[in-house]
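Run log // design_07
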């Protein structure tokens, strides 16, 4: 099976509400989207082309290459269809693989049972053809087979990503309640930041927003920080295709850039975590780190920029009454210190958002994990235009 050169259905998944930004990324890379949906997009491309996508996409989670589509009602139907696939042409019989699934079938009470059926079918086929049973388990660092099964419709994929793409590989120290890298990238793309004007990130936490801003501005792709993907464990993989793509990533990095990114936090530990993560990402020299209350964050007065807050929501951290004052202070800070900027506050607490004291020009929907969140946009006029409206 020359699987790397055959076109097939490819599903690129992402977290809910990141799909519009994933679509922008895929289109910018020159690919035609066949279908888009709430948690991803569908393409018709080769497995080799999946290598480029894995290395470049910031908002994606998994890139799934379709092997077979079929009808299955019962677990036995599933087993027979899976066992008929030429797995000996896809997976090293002396290697290791894992199975993941997305199952909604009335005959299956737990996805783990479906996973077991898939695993048994693959192992039995390999033993029959090669006389050796490959090892299997839950680790996603080798070959990964993915099952999508809804009612009677089933698709089997090779997961070309393996470990999720939503983590970009540079954050060795997570910090407290960190924002996932893919979400941070989506938030930055939603601000329409021009990648040249100042990017101010008060209350930076572990620094994901500031670091992602620096990566986006300098065109550093996530593939620069990762050396293992699911596609590397599919038979027929040519490592030169991977290294050729990595050379392109290195060549496209913008090395000399006049850019102002500020990351501040009251916690000295948080700022140190940010600094160390930024150093791992190779962008520590592009970020100004400040240990201070957010009201003392230095904001350049010349030209427009963006200021982005990701404060505590009151769900897991902080005390609600204290946060009400914090949210009011954020609004005051943006009004007085950020004139001419576009202001953004990412929050999962609509009640606290009312304490900001500014009328949001736009509310962009996101999820942070399972928490329903909004990115609130504020136009911070510099005095030559009308003052911002105050929430009633």
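design_07 sequence
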């Amino acid at each position: 099976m020359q699987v790397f050169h055959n076109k097939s259905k490819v599903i690129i998944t992402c977290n809910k509400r990141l799909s519009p930004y994933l679509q922008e990324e895929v289109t910018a890379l020159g690919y035609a989207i066949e279908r888009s949906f709430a948690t991803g997009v569908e393409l018709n491309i080769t497995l080799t082309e999946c290598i480029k996508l894995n290395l470049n996409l910031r908002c994606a989670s998994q890139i799934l290459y379709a092997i077979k589509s079929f009808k299955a009602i019962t677990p036995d139907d599933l087993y027979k269809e899976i066992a008929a696939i030429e797995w000996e042409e896809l997976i090293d019989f002396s290697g290791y693989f894992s199975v993941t699934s997305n199952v909604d079938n009335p005959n299956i009470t737990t996805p783990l049972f479906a996973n077991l059926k898939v695993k048994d079918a693959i192992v039995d086929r390999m033993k029959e053809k090669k006389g050796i049973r490959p090892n299997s388990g839950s680790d996603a660092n080798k070959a990964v087979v993915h099952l999508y099964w809804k009612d009677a419709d089933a698709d089997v994929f090779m997961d070309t990503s393996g470990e999720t793409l939503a983590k970009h590989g540079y954050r060795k120290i997570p910090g407290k309640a960190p924002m996932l890298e893919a979400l941070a990238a989506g938030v930055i793309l939603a601000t329409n930041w021009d990648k040249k004007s100042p990017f101010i990130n008060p209350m930076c936490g572990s620094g994901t927003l500031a670091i992602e801003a620096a990566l986006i501005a300098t065109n550093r792709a996530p593939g620069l920080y990762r050396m293992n993907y699911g596609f590397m464990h599919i038979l027929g993989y040519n490592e030169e295709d991977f290294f050729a793509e990595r050379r392109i990533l290195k060549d496209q990095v913008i090395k000399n850039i006049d850019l102002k990114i500020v990351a501040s936090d009251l916690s000295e530990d948080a700022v140190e975590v940010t600094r160390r993560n930024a150093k791992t990402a190779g962008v520590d020299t592009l970020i100004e780190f400040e240990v201070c209350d957010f009201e003392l964050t230095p904001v350049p007065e010349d030209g427009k920029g963006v200021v982005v807050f990701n404060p505590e929501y009151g769900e897991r951290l902080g005390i609600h009454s204290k946060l009400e004052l914090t949210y009011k202070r954020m609004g005051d800070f943006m009004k007085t210190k950020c004139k001419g900027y576009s202001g953004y506050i990412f929050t999962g607490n609509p009640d606290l958002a009312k304490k900001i004291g500014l009328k949001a020009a736009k509310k962009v929907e996101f999820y942070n994990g399972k928490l329903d969140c909004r990115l609130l946009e504020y136009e911070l006029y510099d005095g030559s235009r009308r003052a911002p409206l105050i929430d009633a």
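The first strand starts at residue 7 and ends at 13.
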